[in-house]
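Hi F.,

I've been meaning to write this up properly since the lab meeting, where we talked about keeping a consistent format for the predictions we share between groups. The idea is simple: the sequence comes first, exactly as it goes in, then the C-alpha cells exactly as they come out, then a line or two of notes. No screenshots and no reformatting. I'm using this chain as the first example so we have something concrete to point to.
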Amino acid sequence: MSAIAFELPPEIRQACDGLTAFVRAEIFPRHEKHRALLEDQRKLYRDDGRFSDEAVALIREVRCAASRAGFYTMCVPEALGGGGLGHLAYYAGWEHLFRLCGPQNWLMLYVISHWAFGPSRLLERITDEARKRILEPMNAGETSMCFGLSEPGAGSDAAALATRAVPDGDGWKISRRKIWTTNAPIADYCIVFAVTNPSLASARKGGISAFLVPTNSHGFEVQRVVRLFGHIGGDEAELRLDEVLVEPWQLVGELDHGFDAALYGVSLGRIYNSARAVGYGRWALERALEYSKVRETFGRPISDYQGVTFPLAESVAEMHAAHLMGLNAAALLDKGQQAVKELSMTKAYSVQAGFRAVDRSIQTQGAIGFTNLLGLYHAWHSLRIVNVADGTNEILNRTVVQRLLKGDVDLKPMAMRYGKSLPQFALRWTLSNPVISTAPVGCRNESEVNDNVGAIGWSIADADMQEIDAIFARHGVVTSPENWIEKN
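Output, unedited:
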C-alpha cells in the first residue's frame, strides 16, 4: 500500500523484522491468553478508573520482555544505555507496530519505550545522581514515568504555566495542578515543569524548569483518572502537587531553561502520533479492502461500486503521502535539522488523514464497523484524540504559517543514498557552502542544475567535505576546486 523508491537503512529494516517476531511471540499470545481481562473494561480497570493490578503486571511483563530483547531501548541514546537508533527508527518502528497489531493488541504500546513513559532522549539532561538512581530499572522496563506539562489553564499555550517551584533551602517546593498526564496512574516518576523565575516566564524569556519527581513523594497525588469517550477507566490523569520537595539532583537540564526539554518532548510526541496515525490508517484500510471483496450486495461484491472504493483509494493516497512525510521529517531530525515546519505539517496531515482512513473503513464495513469485534472504533477514538494531543491541528498550522512568513519556504528533501543507482553527479565547489546535487544528464551549467535540484529532490547543503569526497569517490568522480566535474 505504501511502496517507496528507497529502502530504509539495514539496521531499521532488521529492527522492524525483529519487532514482527517479538509481537508474534510475546504480544499476540498474551492477548489470547488474557482476553477475558484485556477486553472487559470491568476487569481491566479498578473502581477508581486505574488499571487493575493484573493489567499493570502484564504491562510491566511486556516492557521487561521487550527490554531483554533489545527493542524497548533501541532508540534510547547509547550514553543512557540504549541502542542509539534515531528518529527515523523511532518513526518506522512505531508505524510498523501500529499497522501490525492494530488497536486490539494494545500491549504493543509498551514494546518500544514511549518518549514520555520510559527512557528516551529527554533523560540526557538529568543529573549524574539521577542516572544512578533511575536509569537501570527504567531501561529494564521495571519502572516507568510520565510527562507533567499541561495544566487546566495551559494547554496549547504551554508556556502559561501556573505551577510554581519556590526555593526552599538547597531545593524547591512545587505546588499546583497538572492534567492530561498520560501514564501517570501507573508511573514511578514524573517530569514536572514549573515556573522558577516568574519575571522571565512572564516575559517568555525562560524562567521554566523541569524536575524529576518520584510519584510517591510527599504531596504528590494522582487526584483522579480522566475518563474519555464513556470509558470507565484510562491512563490519563489529573495531578495535584502540594509543596512537593525536590532537591538539586532532580533538576532536568539548566535552571530556568527547562522549557526546551518540553518542546523537544512534544516534538517526539509528534513523530510518535504521526506514526500511530499512518499505522492505524493503513491497518484499517487493509481490512476495508479485504471486506469489500467478500461482502456482496445486489449480487455483486461491493468492491465493484466506485462509491465504496473511491474513498478508500483517496485514503490510500493520503496514507502514502503521510508515510513519506513522516519518513522525511524523521530523517531531517536525524541530520540535525530542526524541521519545525516539516514536523508540524507531518503531524497535522497524518492525524487528519489517518482519522479519515479509519472512518472510511468503518463506513465501508457498515454496522459491524461500530462493534467491539473489529476494533475499528478503538482506532477511531485514538486518532480523534491525537488531532488534539501534542499540538492541535490549528496550532500546527499556525506554526507552519509563522515559519513560512519568516522565509522558511523551501521543501527540505530527505537526503537518501541510492547506491549504484545514483544519477550523474555535478559539483559546485565553494569553500563556504559546498553543494552536491543529483544532476540529470544534459545539464550544462549551474543554473540548469539548480533548477533541477527541486524536481529531483535530493540535495545536501551543509555536508562535511570529507563525506562529499567519499561519496564522489565511490562513484568514480575525483573532486577538485574546479567549478564543475561531470561524469557520463
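Notes:
The mean pLDDT is 86.
The first strand starts at residue 145 and ends at 148.

If this format works for you, I'll send the rest the same way.

G.
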